[in-house]
Design a protein that fits this description.
Layout: E1 2-8, E2 17-19, E3 21-23, E4 35-40, E5 54-55, E6 60-62, E7 74-79, E8 84-89, E9 97-102, E10 111-117, E11 120-126, H1 129-139, E12 143-147, E13 157-159, E14 168-170, H2 175-178, E15 201-205, H3 206-213, E16 231-234, E17 245-251, E18 264-273, E19 280-281, E20 286-287, H4 295-300, E21 314-321, E22 331-333, E23 337-343
Parallel strand pairs: 15-16
Antiparallel strand pairs: 1-2, 1-16, 3-22, 4-6, 4-12, 5-6, 7-8, 8-9, 10-11, 11-12, 13-14, 15-21, 17-18, 17-23, 18-21, 19-20
């Protein structure tokens, strides 16, 4: 198998940024979901679209594409040389406009903000009136862009075992036993994830995407970015084979060098439960019309295969690095080889608090 696509999402729930290669860290690709938009209900109180994303103490609501499909109207591009992120607002039948944001702003000049995402709290920073005003003008209501800075969130949900016995583990307790080496070799303050929902990485396959596309009328292809993956793999023996993957080895050449220290070892812990976000038309920021707006329903028929998320179809596997890199982190690229280093006898069971990827 090989990697065919790589993606990062600097601002959570906005459109993907395709990559040819990426540095691999214990908490995801660089810049992945380091920013998040939140809606302010302070000045113009309104009913939150998601009660679970609303903080009564701050009157701020986390904005995810599940509840705010208009987030799909924002494109993102990275200029690594300049250290900037360009966000372009692309409303249908209207003028596009852009703003440039530092990928790593100096936080000492920013106001701290307490945030909680999926019951996992962290400190973040308000990016200020200029940037907030630009986004607010685009949306037509008050929003704030928050930045993680040096902080991370406690890991929400993993498992003691990936053998399908259903023993879920809530929050981040016993992470060391669940993911040997994933965090232990780094300082404690580096443990955790960004504004990603559940894990540092999401892996999907082209073969399973093909199965989804086969459910659409002739000539229609499912957009893989609607599944919000980080790593896309091709060459799986069949669609949905990844349901049983417990670990991957990734490297430039693996034929005679599987155990090389230069290879990336990844543990896959949980299935990714899907929601209405896969039904969105990215060109309109609304639920798609016709078959494209019925993807979730089509998958409901035979992809509710996780007893811990029995009302949601499954597409993809959440993962973490299986080792820490105290010095230089490795780089993976499109075209790198991938092998399944661990295969589970049964599908894993999602334990605890259920979320969908955004």
């Amino acid at each position: 198998m090989e990697i065919t696509q790589l993606y990062t999402y600097p601002i959570k729930s906005l459109r993907s940024v395709p990559l040819y290669s990426a540095t691999v860290t214990s908490h995801g690709f660089p810049h992945d979901r380091r920013f998040m938009l939140v809606k302010s209900h302070k000045t113009n109180p309104s009913k939150p679209r998601s009660k679970s994303h609303f903080d009564n103490a701050t009157s701020l609501e986390n904005m995810t594409i599940t509840f705010y499909p208009e987030l799909s109207l924002f494109l993102q591009s990275i200029n690594n040389q300049a250290g900037t992120l360009t966000v372009t607002f692309c409303p249908p039948n209207s003028t596009h406009k852009s703003i440039e944001i530092l990928l790593e702003p100096e936080v000492k000049c920013l106001q701290p903000v307490d945030t909680v995402l999926h019951r996992s709290p962290t400190k973040a920073y308000d990016m200020g009136n200029k940037i907030n005003g630009w986004f607010s003008d685009c949306f037509g209501y008050d929003v704030m862009l928050v930045y993680l800075g040096p902080h991370l969130r406690p890991v929400l949900n993993t498992q003691h075992s990936v053998t399908g016995n259903g023993n879920g583990q809530h929050w981040f307790s016993n992470m060391a036993s669940a993911l040997p080496g994933a965090f232990g070799a780094k300082p404690e303050e580096d443990d955790g994830i960004t504004f990603a929902d559940v894990a540092s990485y999401l892996v999907v396959t082209e073969e399973s995407l093909g199965d989804v596309s086969s459910r659409l009328p002739d000539g229609m292809q499912m957009d893989i970015t609607k599944f919000r993956p980080n790593i896309v793999v091709s060459g799986s023996q069949e669609a949905w084979d990844e349901d049983y993957w417990g670990g991957l080895t990734i490297g430039e050449t693996l034929d005679n060098n599987v155990n090389s220290r230069d290879n990336v070892q990844m543990t896959l812990t949980l299935n990714c439960a899907r929601c209405v976000s896969i039904n969105i038309d990215y060109s309109t920021g609304q639920t798609a019309q016709g078959a494209e707006g019925e993807i979730l329903k089509k998958l409901m028929k035979d992809r509710r295969v996780d007893k811990g998320a029995k009302y949601s179809p499954i597409f993809g596997r959440y993962g973490f690095l299986d080792q820490a890199y105290p010095s230089e982190c490795p780089i993976i690229s499109v075209g790198d080889q991938v092998i399944v280093s661990k295969r589970n006898a049964e599908r894993t069971t999602f334990g605890g608090y259920i979320v969908s990827i955004n």
